[in-house]
Write a structure and sequence with these properties.
- By secondary structure, the chain is α+β, with helices and mostly antiparallel strands.
- It has 2 domains: about 300 residues, Rossmann fold, CATH 3.40.50; about 90 residues, no CATH class.
- About 30% of the residues lie in helices and about 25% in strands.
- A 7-stranded antiparallel sheet has the order 2-1-6-7-8-9-10. It has a 6-stranded mixed sheet with strand order 11-15-16-5-17-18, sandwiched between helices. A 3-stranded antiparallel sheet has the order 12-13-14.
- A hairpin with a 4-residue loop joins strand 7 and strand 8.
- Helix 6 packs across helix 9.
- The longest helix has 20 residues.
- The protein is globular, with a radius of gyration of 23 Å.
- The termini are far apart.
Amino acid sequence: MLIEFSVSNFKSFRDRQTLSMVASPRLGKRENVISPRVKGEKLPNLLKVAAIYGPNASGKSSLFKAIDFVRDVFSKAPHRPDKKLTADYFRFDVDLEEEPSNFEYHFIQKGMRYQYLLSANNNRIVFEELTAFPSGKERLLFKRELVNEKETYKFGSTLEGGEQVHEAWRKTTSPRSLYLAQAAQNSSDDMTQLKIPFSWFDDSLLVIDQNSLDTWSRASRKVLAMIPDTAESLSNFLAEVDIPISSISITAKDESHKDLLNKTILDAEGFDEFDNDTKTTLIHKSALGDANFDFAEESEGTKNLIGFWLPWATLALRGSKKDDNLTLFIDELDSSLHPQIVANIIKRHIKSTHHSQLIFTTHDTHLMKSRILRRDQFWITERDKNAATRLFSVHDFEGREGEDLERRYFAGRYRGLPLTKDV
């Protein structure tokens, strides 16, 4: 569960900017917040949902790339030891060219609060630190730092494994890989001290952009192929947002391709084969009867919803379990979707008892007017005169609960509007 995230000197982010999921204590709509489950520590409530607005090229997508930087490093490190990292500095300031990009994560996983700091340039990791807070007490687990071109490590006195194990983990950590990932992935089954915080990045933080929705759509259909009973769940999800599909089936185009239906659900290498050699049929219903349609005939909105279904179902499943949660980031949630569908999705998540979070970018200001969300759940990105992204909450501005946020946004009260020229 995300508490807050900060980034600086990365893509359009120059100075440190922070997205906070900490709820303001004086606002209503209590169903919009989560009481975090942390052992021996009382933390403020956290927001279930955050919506991020702003003009095109104002930094919304850069924020998502920043959030996903850790996963990008550890997921690709074994496959690209000679390739550079994607730490893209703020290019408008030449003084920052030699400085690293900086990322700071505060999160909760399995009932423990953590702080993870990471700095990197294109060539290597230059700083990495993980701190845990058992019963609210700060406890360093490890610190990795580049000083005068020499890498140094400091290990907390309570870090499990002992000196020899710590050194073995260090030796497997290349300049372009994360110590956290190497240690967690090479720990024995009974060593969980680093596995738990690593699992938040690996398993509990999910970032979806428009480019990956197509992949998720294929993944959803692979789930249907492997577990046909889930077709009803997908049909129900679509029906609840007024997409009249009564059933969905996945079949092999001929006998020789039947084995494709049993491949690993998220086996990305099999996606092209899956699309070419299987057929997805959707049955639409109407007052005149039913009609069959091929997946390729569906609208982009329906395809996006089918892609969204799998992470949405995961969001609900994970959030319903004790000490388990999912923080789901979606870039352009409103892409090809009607505003009322987006509002319905948000409303359903808020009304659930899930301890999961949904964070998304959007241009759909209908949400501001619908009064589904609180003032502190609306965030704005804008470019300053130096082309740097600034990120702030609507709640940073004076105002009262229940006011017309959409009207005030378009009036420029919260800034974050495109500067277009009249014709």
